[in-house]
Amino acid sequence: MANSSYNMKRTKIVDIFDPALLDTSVCVKGWVRTRRGNKHVQFVALNDGSTIKNIQIVFDLSKFDEEQLKAITTGSSLCIIGQLVPSMGKGQTCEIQAETFELYGSADPTTYPLQKKGHTLEFLREIAHLRPRTNTFGAILRVRSVLAYAIHKFFNDKGFFYLNTPLITASDCEGAGAMFQVTTLPMNDLPKTEEGDIDYSKDFFGKAAALTVSGQLEGELGATALGAIYTFGPTFRAENSNTPRHLSEFWMIEPEMAFYEIEENMDLAEEFIKYCISFALDKAKDDIEFLAQMYDKDLVERLKFVIHNDFVRLTYTEGVKILEQSGRKFEFPVYWGVDLASEHERYLVEEHFKKPVILTDYPKEIKAFYMKQNEDGKTVRAMDVLFPQIGEIIGGSEREADYDKLLKRIEELGIPMKDMWWYLDTRRYGSVPHSGFGLGFERLVLFVTGMTNIRDVIPFPRTPGNAEF
Ligand code: ATP
Ligand code: MN
Predict the structure, then answer these.
(1) pLDDT score at 175
(2) What is the second-level CATH architecture of the domain 131-178+213-456?
(3) Which residues surround ligand 2, an ion (CB under 5 A)?
(4) 72 near 78, Cβ under 8 Å?
């Protein structure tokens, strides 16, 4: 253990490959991926999370004691000072000739779970608290972060305002999915009303509350004041859907725009997704290429294909006709009025059109109450964006702007008015045509990383029966 690194500026590994640094003294800090070598020289691959790339550290055993180096095991953490020199080795342009090292923390090889390469994704899910230290999860998490930045940048550049909608809500009328209750009532001694129901007036908020399933309704309040807003935050759904595309806690982006009709809404959705994918391909190139090489050889090509091709736009009715005439035996039968299953969506996208599809004008029965009703009395101005591998990635609509029609629909569906008065005020005062959509962030990250299970694209997945880390 030599000098403290205190006085020397640390260089992140992502910046170390700058040719201007060659033949200078540098300080790097990170975690050991591997150590190998012989009696004369030892090589350590060090990673600090700033890039998929490791830097090779060379220990000349004429300068270091072999015993001392034994503490440098996979997973341990180090500070290294040394000379950055061109490398003779394959696959790297430079390496560091170690002059001093400090071991920050050891990692016992008999217990550290990430000893070797090539763990399965299933195994890594069991150790989700450590999996960010693998190449795969490092890459995924960096891509995720780059995509989050792309989203904020896209909307900011367009003059949208970022609106924070509540996570705790008292209105249970969105219809998007089952909700997680939020309460401080004692579970073993619930206060009851005279009728024997739970007396929520005694609860924290004086009424029943839950975690939000969508920020849209509040987003509409923002859009009809600021013109165009977007939300980007967590949403919670207590459905028992154990699929590779559903989480109980996921992040959603919900833009909402005054004066947009359905066509402009579709244009925005298409431009938005293409922008995010291009941004990631540009800013997270190394990570995407790594994931492509490891998991999905067609990934980059598929991403470029989506960027460079127009999405197909057709109505639900036309889509159902294609499915009925496909001659395909689906697990769930297809008929007009059915809520399309993922196998139907994927047939249209992957087999029939071989392009992303925006499906519009769905039967009103299978869509939410707030969607604008068409003249035909049967369909609403919904739009779902369907993607290869993923199925539905975006769900949106033009909103019903007419007070009377909206109220009638609310009554038909028996939605309690006491929950809705504030929402109806957007139509009562200065109502305007407006539209919006919701993009499931993890579904976008799935698509861009080429992963196939949504549990692998969020750092701490919550699914039925799982909230461990
Ligand atoms: P699905 O039919 O796939 O269950 P949905 O129609 O219930 O989705 P919406 O209410 O339209 O979903 O939500 C908007 C978007 O949020 C969806 O297009 C999808 O990208 C994403 N999403 C919805 N539910 C989940 C979930 N449980 N986990 C992750 N993302 C989700
Ligand atoms: Mn939907």
Answers:
(1) 56
(2) 2-Layer Sandwich (3.30)
(3) 395
(4) yes
